Amino acid sequence: MKIIDRKSENFPSSLLQIQNPPKQIYVEGDISLLQKNSIAIVGTRKCTDYGKKYAQKFAQKLAQANVCIISGLARGIDTIAHYSSMNKIGKTIAVIGSGFKHIYPEENQYLYNQILQNGGCIVSEYPPEEPVNKAYFPKRNRIISGLAMGVLVVEGRYRSGSMITARYAIEQNKQVFCIPNKINEPAGYIPNSFIQNGGYLVTKPQDILEFYDLLEQDSKREVANKYQNIYQTIGDIPISMNEISKLTGKQLSEISEALLSMELEGLVQNLPGNKYIRL
C-alpha cells in the first residue's frame, strides 16, 4: 500500500483540478494507472439484463482500446465493468468508500483481489482501518469522476449513486455519456434524464473513442494485434517480404495483405527495394 498526498509527484493531476480534492489517497496496485486515459462506468446496483449487456460491451471495448475503466466496486454495473475490463483485456481502477480492511460489499472481496492480481489499482481516501460508512459512498464519487476523462452512465434509478457521479462530472467539466433506455424502465431514468439535459447519447463504444480522438489509435492496435507475428518481425532494420516469410512461416500472399493493412495504419513504412521498417 502507498499513501500519496497532494504534494507528491504521484498524486493524480486530475484530482488537483476538482473541488475538495482528498488530502491524500491510499493506493494498492499499479499507481501508474492513475495517470492513464480513463473512463468511469457507473450504474445501478439492481441492473437489468440490458444494462449488464451494454456495461460489459462498453467496458471490454474501451479496455481493449487501452482506456482504463474506473468504477466503485459496488454490486451491479460497477462489478460488471470491473470484471469485463480485466482478464488480459485491459486494466481497471476501483475507488472505494472505506478502508482496505473493510471491503463493501463483502462478496466483492474476491473482485478486489482479482483487480490487484490482474495489474489493476484500488484507491481510497480513508486509512485501511476505516470501517464501512454509507455516508462515505456519495463522497467517493467525486474521486471516480475526478480521475476519469468522462463518465458513462449505463443505468440509474431516481436519486441513485450514478446521478451523483454524473453531477460531479458536470461540475468538473467532464463529459457525461449516456446509454439510452426505454422510457418506462426505472433503471433508465438517469441516463434518459441526462440525455434530455445535454448528456452525450452513445450507442457504441466507438462513440466515446471518437469523442476523445482515440479511435485511430484503437484501429492501429487492432491491426497490430491481428498481424502480431508479422508485425513483431519488423523493426528498425529494413526487412523484405521473403525474409519475413522465412521468420514467420507465413505465405507471401498473407504477408502482402498484412503489410498493406499496417502501412495504411501508419505502423510500417515501405522503403526503396520493397523492404519494410516499423514506425
Q: Which blocks of ≥5 consecutive residues have pLDDT under 50?
A: none
Number of DSSP strand runs:
12
What is the total number of structural domains?
2
Shape: globular
Mean of pLDDT: 94
Provide a descriptive summary of the structure in words:
By secondary structure, this protein is α/β, with parallel strands linked by helices. The protein has two domains: about 1-210, Rossmann fold (3-Layer(aba) Sandwich); about 225-279, Arc Repressor Mutant, subunit A (Orthogonal Bundle). It is built from eleven helices and twelve strands. A nine-stranded mixed beta sheet has the order 1-2-6-5-4-3-7-8-9, with helices on both faces. The chain is globular and about 70 Å long. The model has no long low-confidence stretch (mean pLDDT about 95).
Task: Give structural attributes.
279 residues, alpha/beta, Rossmann fold, Arc Repressor Mutant, subunit A, 9-stranded mixed beta sheet, 11 helices, 12 strands, 17% strand, globular
Concise synopsis of the structure shown:
The chain has 279 residues and is of the alpha/beta class. It has eleven helices and twelve strands. The strands form two sheets. It has a nine-stranded mixed sheet with strand order 1-2-6-5-4-3-7-8-9, sandwiched between helices.
Detail the topology: elements first, then pairings.
Blueprint: E1 2-5, E2 24-29, E3 38-42, H1 49-64, E4 68-71, H2 77-84, E5 92-95, H3 109-117, E6 121-124, H4 136-147, E7 150-153, H5 161-171, E8 175-178, H6 189-196, E9 200-201, H7 205-211, H8 215-226, H9 228-233, E10 239-240, H10 241-248, H11 252-264, E11 268-271, E12 275-278
Parallel strand pairs: 3-4, 3-7, 4-5, 5-6, 7-8, 8-9
Antiparallel strand pairs: 1-2, 2-6, 10-12, 11-12
